[in-house]
Amino acid sequence: MYGVINKSLREMVLDGHGELIWDQVMAKAGVPSDSFLSMRSYDDEITFRLAVASSDVLGIDVDTALHAFGEHWVNHTLAKEYDALARSTGSTMLEFLTNLNALHDRISTTFLDYQPPEFRVSALEANRMDVQYISHREGLNSFVAGLLVALSNRFNEPMTIEEIESLPVESGTHTRFKLLMAV
Ligand code: HEM
Description:
Helix content is 52%, strand content 18%. The protein has helices at residues 3-17, 19-29, 44-58, 62-81, 83-89, 93-98, 100-106, 141-154; strands at residues 118-125, 128-135, 159-166, 173-181. A 4-stranded antiparallel β-sheet has the order 1-2-4-3.
């Protein structure tokens, strides 16, 4: 994945736990020290090793770490580095999520040959939303859950994830997140 993702993960651990802990994560992950250039594409393995090493060092399970990372991405990286783009993507959770594929498309001229996920969104009733996440990658459902929780806070639209349902795929991931909005 592009270095912007690895860099955001490093920032989360550094901000929350400091340099000594980050040094332990790097030692445990055994990834090259130059894995953090935003505009360079790295092997996915590097991102996964960093996530697993962070959870090991912090003594939390990897899904908890990925969830926290999803929240950090929206609350810090998106808010600080892509605020204008994020604002033009939507002013409600439904509008934003509906335009998320277009957002990832728009930046494909910057992140050449990258492989963003696909989202399919439908508002079922006033208080229910169905978000399908499709990726050629595996293991990132908790990251997506963290992203969704943080987005609902960003738009001040409280919700709970009622159910996370894995749909059949030959490879990669297809997951349905059923959201219950507090209206
Ligand atoms: C302007 C803001 C955003 C930028 C610049 C951005 C950029 C990226 C980049 C560079 C990747 C790595 C893909 C690769 O290297 O192949 C990625 C992956 C991803 N993005 Fe975005 N993204 C943004 C917003 C979002 C938002 C708001 C969400 C979610 C709700 C999201 C969901 C994801 C997910 C889940 C992945 C992991 C890849 C996968 O699942 O296969 N992104 N994005």
